Amino acid sequence: MLVLCFVFYSCGDNQSSDPESGGGGDIESAGAGNENLPVEDDTEVDLFVSDDLAEFDFGGSAFRIAVQDVSWLYVLYDTQEETGELINDAVYQRNRKIEERFNVELMQEPADVAGIFRRNVQSGTDAFELYLPVDREALVFGTEGMTYKLADIPHIDINKPYWSQSLNSSLTINNDLYFAYGSFNLSVYDYTHLMLFDKQMLADLAFESPYGLVSGGGWTFDVYEQMAKAAVNDLNGDGVMDDNDVYGLVSLDKHVLPCFWAAAGVESISKSSDDIPQFTLIGDEKFASVIDKIFDITQGNDSWYSGRTEITADKAMSGHALFMNCTFKMVGDLRGIDTDFGIIPYPKYNAEQEKYYSRVEGGNPGIVPVTAGNLEMTGVILEVLNAESAKTVIPAYYDISLKTKDTRDEESSKMLDLIFSTRVYDLGDTYWSPILRDGMFLDMFSRNDRNLASHLERIEPRINSELEKVIAALAN
Question: Band of the pLDDT at 9, cuts 50, 70, 90?
Answer without folding.
Answer: very low
